[in-house]
Specification:
CATH topology of the largest domain: Aconitase, Domain 2
Order of helices and strands: HHEEHEEHH
CATH architecture of the largest domain: 3-Layer(aba) Sandwich
Number of strands: 4
Helix content: 25-40%
Strand content: 5-15%
Radius of gyration: 22 Å
Number of helices: 5
Shape: extended
CATH superfamily of the largest domain: Aconitase, Domain 2
Number of domains: 3
Low-confidence stretches: none
Structural class: alpha+beta
C-alpha cells in the first residue's frame, strides 16, 4: 500500500529548513518540473498510471503502534483498554508486560531542572528513535544516537 502526495513549494521549503542547500533544492525542483511531478495547485490534476484510490481523510482513525512491535496497530480510542489488558498479561504474549497487580499503581518520582515529576505505568513518554526520522536529516540522526546513549547511561533499557 502506498500513498502519494505531490511535491509542492511547501515540500521545497521543508528541504531548505532542514539544511539542504539552495542549489540542491533548485536541482530537486528543476528535476520534478521536468518530469511533470511538481504539484502546481490550480493546474490540471496529475495523471497516474495504474489504479487510483480516492480517500476521505475524515474517515481515518488515529492509531499508534506497539507497544513492542511497530506493526501492532492500536486505535487511539482503544488505547486505555488495550494498555490495561497488556499490563498484566504474561510477557510471553506479544503485548504482555507481566506487571504484578501490586506494582501497577507504583509511581517513580524525580526532579529535573528544578521541577518535580512522577511517572507511572501508562505515562506517555516519547522515547522512539525511528529510522525514517533519522535518515531524513543527519543532524537528527546524530541527536538520536546521543539521546539513546544518554538514556542507556541513565538506566533505560529496551523491552
Amino acid at each position: 500500500t502506498m500513498g502519494f502526495f505531490g511535491v509542492d513549494q511547501k515540500s521545497l521549503d521543508y528541504l531548505l529548513q532542514t539544511g539542504r542547500s539552495r542549489e540542491t533544492v533548485a536541482n530537486v525542483e528543476a528535476y520534478l518540473r521536468a518530469q511533470g511531478m511538481f504539484q502546481l495547485y490550480g493546474a490540471t490534476e496529475p495523471e497516474y498510471s495504474g489504479d487510483v484510490m480516492e480517500l476521505d481523510l475524515a474517515t481515518i482513525e488515529p492509531c499508534v503502534s506497539g507497544p513492542k512491535r511497530p506493526h501492532d496497530r492500536v486505535a487511539v480510542s482503544e488505547l486505555p483498554r488495550d494498555f490495561a489488558v497488556g499490563l498484566s498479561t504474561p510477557s510471553t504474549s506479544f503485548k504482555g508486560f507481566n506487571v504484578d497487580k501490586a506494582e501497577q499503581g507504583r509511581a517513580k518520582k524525580f526532579s529535573y531542572k528544578g521541577k518535580d515529576y512522577s511517572l507511572e505505568h501508562g505515562s506517555v513518554v516519547l522515547a522512539a528513535i525511528t529510522s525514517c526520522t533519522n535518515t531524513s536529516n543527519p543532524g537528527v540522526m546524530l541527536g538520536a544516537g546521543l539521546l539513546a546513549r544518554n538514556a542507556r547511561d541513565k538506566g533505560s533499557r529496551c523491552l
